[in-house]
């Protein structure tokens, strides 16, 4: 029951106060209503929508996210996936998260994730942390517990280096971990994969920026062994061309 009261309080606190509520503060009747500085807003961003040139079949990738809510409470959605030009989408994932600000620079996130694609379909519970670290490094980390009991984790970090007012260099690192071998997905225990990239974008407008870059990906440990057993190369380097936009 206490948890129910907490949910109701959170929901009610996101709505602006009425005129009657404002008058209960004791302010004179002819004073204007106070300005509410935490309105609910909508934000959508495609961080990476790109074409990848590789030694084998060229590929594509998308990485998008958005939120609706106030400073303290938000509903987040995250979508990402990749595939090859010849075979189409290899895998994709969708996340629906509730986000709560816990410090001025970090949000605690929880919700669900659904994987789709030709491979094994999985559903996950998600617990994550997203925000801005010292020296302006962006961090997005999450734990995933699947409906099969598999525990995995992902950590992504980015940094924006302003070369000019419009030209931005963006290094990016992504690390994936697993608590156990997941052979049907080709994932090994421990550090399973790493991706290091550098993208150089030109902001035609702040909301619209084409970019070019390079990305290096590598499967590690048992994940690399699973890939070799399938006849795949555990590492690849690609030149990327893409677009970043938000509104």
TrEMBL record:
<keyword id="KW-0732">Signal</keyword>
<dbReference type="InterPro" id="IPR036709">
    <property type="entry name" value="Autotransporte_beta_dom_sf"/>
</dbReference>
<dbReference type="GO" id="GO:0005507">
    <property type="term" value="F:copper ion binding"/>
</dbReference>
<protein>
    <recommendedName>
        <fullName>Copper resistance protein B</fullName>
    </recommendedName>
</protein>
<dbReference type="InterPro" id="IPR007939">
    <property type="entry name" value="Cu-R_B_prcur"/>
</dbReference>
<feature type="signal peptide">
    <location>
        <begin position="1"/>
        <end position="19"/>
    </location>
</feature>
<dbReference type="Pfam" id="PF05275">
    <property type="entry name" value="CopB"/>
</dbReference>
<dbReference type="GO" id="GO:0006878">
    <property type="term" value="P:intracellular copper ion homeostasis"/>
</dbReference>
<dbReference type="GO" id="GO:0009279">
    <property type="term" value="C:cell outer membrane"/>
</dbReference>
């Amino acid at each position: 029951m206490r948890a129910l009261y907490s949910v109701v309080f959170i929901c009610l606190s996101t709505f602006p106060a009425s005129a009657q509520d404002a008058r209960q503060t004791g302010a004179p009747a002819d004073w204007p209503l106070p300005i509410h500085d935490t309105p609910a807003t909508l934000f959508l961003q495609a961080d990476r929508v790109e074409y990848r040139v590789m030694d084998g079949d060229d590929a594509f990738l998308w990485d998008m996210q958005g939120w609706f809510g106030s400073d303290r409470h938000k509903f987040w959605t995250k979508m990402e996936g990749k595939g090859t030009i010849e075979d189409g989408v290899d895998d994709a994932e969708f996340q629906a998260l509730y986000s709560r600000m816990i410090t001025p620079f970090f949000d605690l996130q929880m919700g669900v994730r659904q994987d789709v694609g030709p491979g094994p379909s999985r559903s996950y519970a998600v617990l994550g942390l997203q925000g801005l670290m010292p020296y302006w490094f962006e961090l997005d980390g999450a734990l995933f517990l699947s409906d099969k009991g598999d525990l995995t984790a992902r950590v992504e970090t980015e940094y924006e280096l302003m070369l000019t007012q419009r030209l931005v260099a963006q290094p990016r690192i992504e690390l994936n971990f697993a608590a156990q071998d997941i052979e049907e997905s080709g994932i090994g225990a421990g550090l399973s994969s790493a991706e290091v990239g550098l993208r150089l974008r030109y902001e035609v407008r702040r909301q619209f920026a084409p970019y070019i870059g390079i990305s290096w990906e590598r499967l590690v440990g048992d994940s690399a062994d699973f890939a070799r057993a399938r006849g795949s190369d555990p590492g690849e380097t690609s030149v990327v061309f893409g677009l970043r936009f938000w509104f």
